[in-house]
Write a structure and sequence with these properties.
Layout (H helix, E strand, L loop, with lengths): L2 H9 L3 H5 L1 H22 L6 H4 L1 H21 L5 H24 L14 H23 L7 H38 L4 H7 L1 H21 L1 H36 L2 H5 L3 H20 L10 H32 L3 H25 L11 H20 L6 H14 L10 H7 L1 H11 L5 H12 L10 H6 L3 E3 L11 H5 L14 E6 L8 E5 L4 E7 L2 E8 L11 H6 L13 E3 L4 E4 L14 E4 L4
Parallel strand pairs: 1-2
Antiparallel strand pairs: 2-3, 3-4, 4-5, 6-7, 7-8
Helix pairs in contact: 3-5, 3-10, 5-6, 5-7, 6-7, 7-8, 7-16, 8-9, 8-10, 8-11, 11-13, 11-14, 13-14, 13-15, 14-15, 15-16, 15-17, 17-19, 18-19, 19-20
Length: about 600
């Protein structure tokens, strides 16, 4: 946006209104802080209003967190009528996004505040930022589609302003925390206590942020200067990224793609590289005006980088297609596919801008402008579709995964029932309920097992399958085998992961606490854990740390085989105090053996 357009936007409110921008922005920041503090109090506790009314809490949180920030940026730029309409539209859309995200979740995924899923929060903020900076330049220029310099100027300035405002807020808290520490040194703790109060800290944070937005807005030359320096530095980084991307693409015919596929993150890695190229290309191109064009070497780098986006997107789509073919759809893969679609739009448009001068006369990279504008519109549309019932990633993933199971693409013992139970909301649980009535007895049994489990890390496999996956032998030879279901029950938190493959563990029964019921010791190469039945499940109740009188540690498995692993009374007894409610346990220092020179104090466990 040109300076003339900037002035037109500011003058749309009139001079009197312009003088009120400071108080208006401070009021918005204070109201946002109070709103978020109120929502924080309403969500505090399992029986809180937020926990019992998540369908109302989620939309309120999304609107309170993001809409005021948009108003801070819009104040003084949009005409009052446009501002009112846009605020209403943005608020309704944010509320609907929050409502859908809460409504699609099940009780297992609504664990606690903020109840909203991280992708919904992140992509809602991205969609609002993009949409706002499509609306603002158009209103300033009184056109449906503004000029590209207006879009670039408004969006880039807002990005710099946001970064400076966040930095200012962080610096404010560093300074007041330092001040609180100084007062504490001389015995005055009032400031430290005040900063710990949420009713003070939350509103103050957003008032400070609003102050920073206003201060950076009235000093327009400061923002433009910082932006100019930042764009200049980023544009020269384009050379580095272009060389790296070109080298990567050129090396692929000789190295192949196997190494890339083995990372299991090929799509995200390549999409990130393409996104970096897109950002750096725009940093070099800026608003496209002749007086802002970069040097010849950077202009060449922009052309090469624009062409390189296409092979990167092709590789990303290829890798994503292979993963989907092998393992089906997941929410992450659907979101990656949406990102690839946006990337493909950039690749096509930027590639055309770079190559079109070879067959027709055009200004340097001029088609890039149209591509950037319309891809921004596409991005907003894709985000709205993804986080609405239209293209809900969880629902689409559940449909695909269940279809794979039913047509035999995945066997019942390899199917991820945990995804349906814990990670796909109501759609997944409804599908799991249908699977319990499957004509395939194995599928139905495993689905019912998944329904009854209360831990997302449980493996829904048979005890025999679980035991075969681990290397655990009973000792002495000929002893009774591991209890049925021990591995599947005891490994809920990955406690037995060290007993896999070549890492053999020995298991032995010992009544260590003298209660007449033997516990189960699992002895690894450097770890001894003790398991007991708790509430019908085998649970690890503790572990033994090796304390040695020299720096050489022996393998406890060899000691068990040789009959040298035995229980003895400790040389140093525990010290009990506070009427037996607490005790101090002796821990030897390095002069007596391996360990630290501290005595640990903790509450006495319940008998």
């Amino acid at each position: 946006m040109t300076e003339t357009t900037e002035a037109t936007g500011r003058d749309s409110l009139g001079g009197a209104a312009s003088t009120l921008l400071g108080p208006i922005r401070l009021g918005i920041g204070f109201a946002q802080g109070l709103g978020l503090y109120g929502l924080h109090r309403l969500s505090d506790g399992a029986a809180s209003w937020g926990a019992t009314h998540p369908l109302m809490f989620g939309p309120l949180l999304l609107v309170t967190a993001f809409l005021p920030v948009m108003l801070l940026a819009a104040a003084g730029r949009l005409r009052p009528l446009t501002l009112a309409i846009w605020t209403a539209v943005a608020g309704v859309v944010l509320a609907l996004l929050g409502l859908h995200d809460i409504a699609r979740q099940s009780a297992d995924t609504l664990q606690g505040p903020p109840f909203l899923s991280p992708p919904a929060i992140l992509f809602s903020a991205a969609a609002l930022f993009i949409a706002h900076h499509l609306v603002t330049p158009a209103d300033m220029e009184r056109r449906r589609i503004a000029s590209y310099p207006a879009y670039f100027d408004t969006a880039s300035k807002a990005a710099v302003q946001l970064a400076l405002s966040v930095g200012f807020t962080g610096a404010f808290w560093i300074l007041v925390t330092l001040g609180a520490a100084l007062f504490k040194v001389i015995g005055l703790r009032f400031l430290e206590d005040l900063l710990r109060e949420e009713w003070f800290a939350i509103p103050v944070t957003f008032v400070v942020f609003a102050t920073a937005v206003h201060l950076t807005d009235v000093r327009d030359g400061l923002i433009r200067g910082v932006r100019t320096v930042g764009l200049m530095l980023l544009s020269w980084l384009l050379l580095v990224m272009t060389v790296l991307a070109a080298g990567f693409v050129a090396a692929l015919p000789f190295t192949g793609l196997d190494g890339l596929w083995e990372t299991r993150s090929a799509t995200s890695l390549v999409l990130a590289a393409a996104a970096a190229l897109i950002i750096l290309i725009n940093a070099a191109y800026q608003d496209g005006q002749p007086d802002n064009r970069p040097p010849a070497v950077l202009r060449a780098a922009v052309r090469v980088a624009a062409v390189l986006i296409t092979p990167l997107i092709v590789i990303a789509v290829w890798g994503l297609a292979l993963r989907i073919q092998q393992y089906g759809l997941t929410p992450d893969r659907i979101i990656a596919a949406a990102c690839a679609l946006v990337g493909a739009s950039f690749a096509a448009g930027y590639g055309w801008a770079a190559l079109s001068p070879f067959w027709r006369k055009t200004e340097w990279m001029r088609p890039l402008e149209r591509t950037t504008i319309w891809t921004a519109v596409l991005t907003v549309a894709v985000i709205l579709a993804l986080f609405s019932p239209a293209l809900d990633p969880a629902r689409l993933s559940v449909m695909d995964q269940v279809a794979r199971l039913e047509r035999g693409a995945v066997t019942p013992d390899r199917f991820d029932y945990r995804f349906l139970r814990f990670s796909s909301g109501k759609a997944g649980q409804a599908a799991l309920e249908r699977l319990t009535r499957s004509s395939n007895a194995d599928i139905a049994t495993r689905a019912r097992t998944a329904q009854t489990t209360d831990n997302a890390s449980d493996d829904f496999i048979s005890p025999d399958e679980a035991a075969r996956a681990f290397s655990i032998e009973m000792w002495p030879i000929g002893a009774a085998p591991l209890p049925d279901g021990f591995v599947a029950s005891a490994n809920r938190q990955g406690d037995l992961d060290h007993c896999q493959y070549a890492n053999l563990c020995l298991a032995t029964r010992r009544d260590l606490d003298g209660d007449g019921s033997p516990e189960l010791l699992i002895v690894g190469h450097d770890d001894i854990s003790i398991y007991a039945v708790d509430a019908g499940r085998w649970t690890r109740i503790g572990r033994f740390d090796q304390t040695c009188r020299n720096e050489t540690r022996s393998d406890p498995r060899e000691a068990l085989r040789a009959g040298r692993l035995r229980a003895v009374r400790p040389v140093w007894p525990d010290l009990v105090f506070e009427e037996g409610e607490q005790f101090a346990r002796f821990v030897p220092d390095h002069r007596l053996g391996c360990g630290s020179a501290t005595v640990s104090v903790r509450a006495k466990p319940a008998p």
